[in-house]
Amino acid sequence: MHIDKRLVIEALEQVVLVNDHPAPAIFIQADGVVIQGIRIIQKQGGDESTAVSVQADGVMLKELEIRTHGYGIQLRDAHGGALEGNYIAWDRSQGPSTLGEKGNGIDLYKSSNNLIEQNVIVNMRDGIYLDNSKDLMIADNRIFGSRYGIHCMYVDGTEIVGNIGENNITGAMIMGVRDVIVSSNSFAEQRSNVNSQGILLYDVRDSLVEKNVLEGNRVGIYLERSRQNELSYNSISRNFVGMQFVSAEDNLIHYNDFVGNVIEAEATKSESNQLHQNFWDMAALLDLNDDGVSELSYAINPFYRNLITRIPAFQLFFQSPGIHFLSTMAEQDRQGWTIDPSPGMKLNMPRMDLDADADNNSLPEGTFLIIVASMLLLVSGLTIIYSRGSKE
Amino acid sequence: MMLSDMLLVAKKEIRIGFRNPWAYSFLILFTVFSLSLLLINARYEVSGYSGVTGSMLSLILYLLPLMSLFLGSFSLTAEKEEGSWNLLSTYPLGTSSFILGKYIGLSVVLLTILFFGYGVMGLASGMAGQNFEINTYLLFLFFSCGLVLLFLTLALWIGSLAKNRWQALTVSVMVWFFTVIAWPTLLIAGLGLFPYLWIKPLLTLFTLLNPAEFVRLFVVIKLGGGSVLGPEYYQWVNWIQGSSGSLLFLLLFFFWLLFSLTCVCWIWERRRARV
Questions:
Q1: Is the pLDDT of residue A25 over 60?
Q2: Domain spans of chain A, in order of start
Q3: Which residues of B are less than 8 Å from A305 in CB distance?
Q4: For FRET with B23, which of A49, A182, A209, A371 sits at 20 to 30 Å CA-CA?
Q5: Nearest residue of A to residue B111 by CA position?
Q6: Architecture in CATH for domain A147-302+337-366
Q7: pTM score, two decimals?
Q8: How would you write chain A as a 3-class SS string?
Q9: Interface touch A390/B15, C-beta < 8 Å
């Protein structure tokens, strides 16, 4: 379907558009087109094959349901548009496929001032891919099982707010940007891949990363070659490594919560960052003057990170009791370490309790645990009593 | 080898084991320690590989090998010191029945201590309504059992070679220190002397020789933390996470048991011939 006139297409009932050709199912070249509520099945894959292609300004795509064997929605030189409430998923009906074959869910190139809101993207390569575009608003999208949830390359002045990413390789991959706001997103369970992260920031400047929830990732926030950013009020919990800095300088990292991570933070070649009043649950804290700030500083021991940078094979020693022993021997010389001189005594952000349905699920599991535990206790008790009581 | 002889030795071992105050001190130590860890982390859910499970793993790695080494090696040296082995060796009792009986008896004692500790821990967290994932709990239980049974074979080695309890104590502490605490230090220092390309294969080989280390890695991988080991071990991790990984663990486990017990039997058989 090629649209080159200003049209409004609105599906009143179930409308399905099946496309067997590599060309886009819908190709929009007229400004101000509105399309709403259509189901699209794009059967052909291939390089740039896409379900919807937009090359015009002010286009609005709403509540589309797309199953594709290529890309989902492509915007090229398309400004001031809006993508709202769409559902985009990889078409699995043609058998399994590798990441390399897949296309991106929403793919922007040289397309500025667009709004991407409340879309759901499942099993694509990159959920939302933004390239060479400016002043975008990416809000309240949900992305699952893809390579990168949100992938930004050279997008200045963009806001990424309230998105949720789970089980992707990396939640948000943000590279080569300035003046970006990453706020109130939640990235969880990005840990199955050896390169997984919650949020990866590479060559990022003057940006704000705040109030994000990063839970159960391999690395919560990974910051490399980035300067003058502010990271605050993030809740970083249960990750293998909470935060990792590599050659990152002059960043301000404050009021973040680090809870239940296997290693809270690692830093290499990152000496001039300012850390203060973060909450580190493993830190030894002492508040003498009752101002809510510990007088004991918290230092990030770089021993293990330096070791495996030289010889990666030693990653096998991650959190080995012996490595802990060896690292503490290097505690004396703290020059060049990343240090939080004033760790907070309390959580900076209220912890969200597990939601109600999770509690319901855990109830029978809790009883099962009690049963197993009682049986173990019973067996051990009986063994002791029996062996002590028996004569000869 | 007579099965009834073996069971007799095992029964006697269990009875003596529970008269031994050491067994109870370890029982209390393990229970109190695991409860305290739960208390410290009472706010958090215990599942997957996280700070909580990481610290529990460390506790297990510190305490259980030490417990197995002490109880196991003392039991064997006691036989020598108290002269009961001299007496037993005049009876028609096979050496292998004796060693296997000892091993089984000691295993029962050690596993009872574990069951008690885990029982109390599970009950406490279940009653307190803490979110302790059952799979994680069972995984920890199984791997603790594995660790104890493997270190018990090491303990039998020590008990066979040591002349008395003092020697057994010294050697046990040494073995514990080397396998649990000094292990990375030794390997980092030692492997630094080899060419770069040799490091990974050698490290893998040495890891298979240290029960504390391979048990730890299995738990970490099974808890879903395999990706922290980095791209170097990517295929390994994927493979171990599957069912073939459990099979490998079982194979390794039985190989370890078989090899050590055979050697220990051989040592005692030689001594017996000399008596």
A1: yes
A2: 1-126, 147-302+337-366
A3: none
A4: A371
A5: A380
A6: 3 Solenoid (2.160)
A7: 0.83
A8: CEECCCCEEECCCCCEEEECCCCCCEEECCCCCEEECCEEEECCCCCCCEEEEECCCCCEEECCEEEECCEEEEEECCCCCEEECCEEEECHHHCCCCHHHCCCCEEEECCCCCEEECCEEECCCEEEEEECCECCEEECCEEECCCEEEEEECCECCEEECCEEECCCEEEEEEEEECCEEECCEEECCCCCCCCEEEEEEEEECCEEECCEEECCCEEEEEECCECCEEECCEEECCCEEEEEECCECCEEECCEEECCCEEEEEECCCCCEEECCEECCCCCCCCCCCCECCCCEEECCHHHHHHHHCHHHHHHCCCHHHHHHHHHCCCCCCCCEEECCCECCCCCCCCCCCHHHHHHHHHHHHHHHHHHHHHHHHHHHHHHHHHHCCC
A9: yes
